[in-house]
From TrEMBL, chains A, B:
Provenance organism: Microlunatus aurantiacus
InterPro entries: Homeodomain-like_sf, HTH-type_TetR-like_transc_reg, HTH_TetR, Repressor_TetR_C, Tet_transcr_reg_TetR, Tet_transcr_reg_TetR-rel_C_sf
Xref: Gene3D superfamilies: Homeodomain-like, Tetracycline Repressor, domain 2
Record-given protein name: TetR/AcrR family transcriptional regulator C-terminal domain-containing protein
Polar residues bias (residue ranges): 1-15
Length: 254, 254
DNA sequence: ACAACGTATCTACACTGTAGACCTTAGACG
DNA sequence: CGTCTAAGGTCTACAGTGTAGATACGTTGT
């Protein structure tokens, strides 16, 4: 082996008789849809949802689509584009809360919508949080930015300035991300164990150094995502309401 | 260093590691430091800090240490362990605010400390946020949990219940993470441009769909991380203070 | 001296993303 | 009808990845 391939040397006519699939079956066009970008990304998303991020390799994705590996490069010029496409696709699913309610409940619903979406695609969450960091606003696909603009509009309509709205958005989304990271965390170590401390593996922590964390075992055991999210939202909304233009009667401490 | 295919030709001639200018201690080849786990991780961290996460490959890391690739497996049995080790190392640098002040300013300092640490290792932030998700509390290295326990102690000492403290921690850390993701984001697209809209690339967004975001160009341009962080902390602390045991009948703004 | 043992290295392998050349097909145009 | 063009699809090849298994090395205990 190890023949160094001199460029452009051997030109062997290759019959390519590999017929693993009946190509002459032109009467059945069901499998021969022209493979659009949407379809590639949708399949990638399905794959990630089903088997995790590591399962998303180009060869695997190509097999899933019944096409050659290199075909995919037409629809996602490199790996980053593929990941960004998945993010785009998922964010497109996000339903924005409709109008007709006060801004606090709209923010609440917004958060819960996002949470539900994230839980529906847990393996994509890491992408959702980290991919946009590498891309400036102006270069992101508009579908990715629609939730942001919606948020800004919601708050400015409520009376906040655009700058305030942007800052609130950062705090809001930040909290949301953090909540999801916490919620998606694997906490259970020994599922069969009945004692909370043992089930969560907290017994391995030195009692002297982690008394409080260990004492929280029962509370960590009956974690309720919705309740936790609402608690955090209470905090944030209280803070936001405090600087709301309509609450000027109370005065703002410097 | 040209890659060759013929196996076993010019090996065995390497009595001491090639003095390839190891960064830490570039001196006599007799220096046979036994290559502890600390040193491996420290080198990995330095590598990531200098060239980003993608530069961290085992071969590269081995070269950096002047050792064989397989040696590293003794100190980090697989890639995940290597990444977790880096997280551990970075979190070990985090200085926890000392006592002697009210809990609000301690929380504030805590956040700023973390921010400073993250900015010192921007390429590790993604790891910092996402790695722990895969590991249950009980299985994490204690160094990773010390900040958490410290936080819990801080808040319980301030009068909160342990459960409240845990929830506040989630909201707090969540916001902090989100803030960092926002701050580390690449915003500038055309550094030479003088007009904010163009420099941030926001001109590429359809004006009809993104009026507010586009109008924020000047504000996004003079982003100040400390100021932004403090704004978010204001929000959160206002909310937290509102549920503080001592503020039972007093009300929050005053 | 010998054996034992932790450490370090070599070789090999399966798998990854991707470049570049090649083939196939559909339509445009004479 | 035949030919041209271009986009879509495929093949082969290659450099680079993490890692298993066997092998060499260096120190130490007896």
């Amino acid at each position: 082996m190890t023949t160094k391939s001199t460029p452009g040397s051997d030109t062997t006519a290759r019959p390519s008789g590999q017929a693993d699939r009946s190509t002459d079956d032109a009467a059945a066009p069901t499998e021969r849809v022209p493979l659009t970008r949407q379809r590639v990304l949708a399949t990638a998303l399905r794959l990630v949802d089903a088997e995790g991020l590591d399962a998303l390799t180009r060869r695997r994705l190509a097999r899933e689509l019944g096409r050659d590996v290199m075909t995919l490069y037409r629809y996602a010029p490199d790996q980053a584009a593929l990941l960004d496409g998945i993010v785009e696709l998922v964010l497109d699913e996000l339903e924005l809360p409709d109008e007709g309610q006060d801004w606090q409940t709209r923010l609440r619903r917004s958060a819960h919508n996002f949470r539900r979406l994230a839980l529906a695609h847990p393996h994509v969450v890491n992408l959702l949080l980290t991919r946009p960091v590498a891309t400036a606003f102006g270069l992101r696909p508009p579908a990715t930015l629609r939730p942001l603009e919606h948020f800004l509009e919601l708050l400015t309509t409520a009376g906040f300035s655009a700058v305030e709205a942007m800052r609130i958005h950062r705090a809001f989304v930040g909290f949301l991300y953090g909540h999801l990271l916490a919620e998606l965390q694997d906490t259970v170590v020994n599922p069969d164990e009945t004692e909370d401390l043992l089930r969560l593996g907290l017994h391995q922590l030195p009692p002297r150094q982690f008394p409080i964390l260990r004492s929280l075992a029962p509370d960590l055991a009956d974690y309720d995502g919705v309740r936790e999210l609402d608690f955090g939202l209470d905090l944030l909304l209280a803070g936001i309401t405090a600087i709301h233009p309509d609450s000027t009667s109370e005065g703002k401490a410097g």
